[in-house]
């Protein structure tokens, strides 16, 4: 017989062996998932015997994790901005640094009445849906070129409880959406920005399992972002913002690109909570 505690310890050792960090935490998450429990409930039962079907389920999950499949895809969810989001290999797994887009959007929205958020390349929907869930009178237009990604975002709209305030549009960037007349818009986007040549240096979890279409964007990484920036002057009204995630090494180049393509905008780079350049903040100037 094996207890849940032993099962978690043995699982952690297996993850350790292949160099997976936070092995104990991940092992607990996997055992809890196999047992249909939340992690804290598992921790309360560590001395109890684990039924043999759960032991085999844990083995199967461990085998996937040892092959470097991300934990979030194995358990099918990831926490972002305090909420649970469904994820699968059709969408990028939300990263904590991306929460900067949400907190900045909420600051900038202040008391703008009935704002319309355009979340371009929404993926799981984590950014736009989090903004919506934190505000009561907002509306979201979430675009993605991937129908499978929009299915995930649509599930998440239900999960977060805001489905009645979201429109999903399958299209490339903004090619296929229109502003609701008379609305105030704020745009967010975490587009692919990893230079194609960097694939070999990415963690195997990212390079082998996350969708390439959500990660890679040409040689310098800024190809797709350039496409969106080029459309912003025609889309935003004076006084409106766009918040675009960038790689920590792309601050300078992103700023240069924005200043060249958007002379009528104020452009700035903002840092994430680790102090890394992470976001291009673009404001269309008023009165010029
Ligand atoms: N930050 C992600 C990574 O480096 C990439 C996300 C993206 O391209 N938008 O793994």
Structural features, described:
- The protein has 288 residues and is α/β, with parallel strands linked by helices.
- It has 12 helices and 9 strands.
- The model has no long low-confidence stretch (mean pLDDT 97).
- Helix 7 (126-133) links the parallel strand 3 and strand 4.
- Strands 5-4-3-6-7-9-8 form a 7-stranded mixed sheet, with helices on both faces. A two-stranded antiparallel ribbon has the order 1-2.
- Helix 1 (4-17) packs across helix 2 (23-35) and helix 7 (126-133) packs parallel to helix 8 (147-160).
- It binds glutamine (GLN).
- The site of glutamine has 9 residues, from loops.
List keywords for this structure.
288 residues, alpha/beta, 7-stranded mixed sheet, two-stranded antiparallel ribbon, 9 strands, elongated, binds glutamine
Put the structure in a nutshell.
By secondary structure, this protein is an alpha/beta fold. The chain has helices spanning 4-17, 23-35, 39-43, 52-66, 71-75, 99-109, 126-133, 147-160, 204-209, 212-215, 223-235, 251-261; strands spanning 77-80, 83-86, 115-120, 139-144, 166-170, 184-189, 241-245, 265-271, 277-284.
Give the beta-strand count: 9
End-to-end separation: 75 Å
Percent of residues in helices comes to: 40-55%
Number of helices in the DSSP assignment: 12
Which runs of at least 5 residues are low in confidence (pLDDT < 50)?
none
Largest sheet: 7 strands, mixed
Bound molecules: glutamine
Mean pLDDT across the residues is 97
Strand line-up across the major sheet: 5-4-3-6-7-9-8
Give me the Rg, rounded.
21 Å
